[in-house]
User: Which sequence fits this backbone?
């Protein structure tokens, strides 16, 4: 009887916490849609899909970009091993204090910092390699040069085995310079990874596509590809003048 009462109390406080998170998220979106980019936190379905392609039971260091109110962070912490660390970046200070109040886990290092500062922060914390990046940043609202900077910043920490997951809403609408256009993150991600798999999650508000990216194209690879090209060109017979 007492046990049932305690379980009910826990579930009720969980529901109340979620309602508070939803309210905070919606209010923040109303005042800063460009950064928040959504009207509601991710569903558990979407969070699970973001983690599906990761070796969650083996990871040591995962970084989360745009933790929001912690919808994905919580699910991530359910699955990663006890010795893992999740370094989460979030720019909204209210979201950061909400997570700090409602989520206590020694494996979480939550930073009120921009994702673009990840390189400096990871070095400061003593990390040289990351197993996975879980990104909720809205690439459709992020200008291309900022997306490139972000990838450059992450590059030194990623190798062949690192996995990167990113979602985007299925409508893919982008509003820029007074114009509405459709935007897909796929071509951009393909520049940085040899394999990008895509899956649609309908049970989310709004439905989303999850990109699971593997085979990071490192500078060495790019140089390798260039030298192969140069080698091949050198082997071609010089063109006869017309
Ligand atoms: C679409 S919401 C996702 C929130 C949460 N991960 C979820 O799935 O419910 C994007 C989040 O990224 C944060 N954000 C936007 N730009 C950022 C940046 N440059 N660095 C870190 N966080 C950022 C926003 O404040 C927002 O909380």
Assistant:
């Amino acid at each position: 009887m007492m046990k049932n009462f305690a379980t009910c109390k826990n579930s009720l406080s969980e529901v109340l916490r979620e309602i508070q998170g939803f309210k905070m998220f919606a209010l923040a979106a109303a005042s800063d849609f460009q950064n928040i980019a959504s009207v509601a936190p991710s569903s558990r379905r979407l969070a699970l899909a973001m983690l599906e392609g990761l070796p969650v039971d083996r990871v040591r260091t995962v970084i989360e970009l745009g933790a929001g109110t912690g919808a994905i962070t919580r699910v991530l912490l359910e699955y990663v091993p006890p010795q893992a660390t999740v370094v989460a970046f979030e720019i909204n200070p209210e979201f950061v204090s909400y997570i700090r109040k409602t989520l206590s886990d020694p494996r979480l290092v939550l930073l009120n910092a921009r994702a673009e500062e990840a390189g400096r922060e990871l070095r400061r914390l003593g990390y040289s390699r990351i197993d996975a990046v879980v990104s909720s940043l809205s690439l459709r609202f992020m200008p291309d040069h900022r997306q490139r900077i972000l990838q450059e910043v992450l590059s030194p920490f990623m190798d062949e085995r690192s996995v990167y997951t990113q979602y985007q809403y299925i409508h893919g609408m982008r509003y820029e310079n007074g114009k509405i256009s459709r935007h897909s993150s796929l071509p951009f991600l393909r520049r940085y990874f040899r394999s990008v798999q895509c899956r649609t999650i309908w049970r989310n508000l709004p439905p989303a596509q999850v990109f699971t990216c593997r085979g990071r194209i490192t500078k060495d690879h790019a140089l390798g590809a260039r030298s192969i090209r140069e080698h091949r060109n050198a082997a071609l017979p010089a063109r006869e003048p017309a």
Summary: The domain at 2-235 is CATH 3.40.50.150 (Rossmann fold). Strands lie at 61-65, 85-89, 108-111, 132-135, 163-169, 173-176, 179-182, 193-201, 208-216.
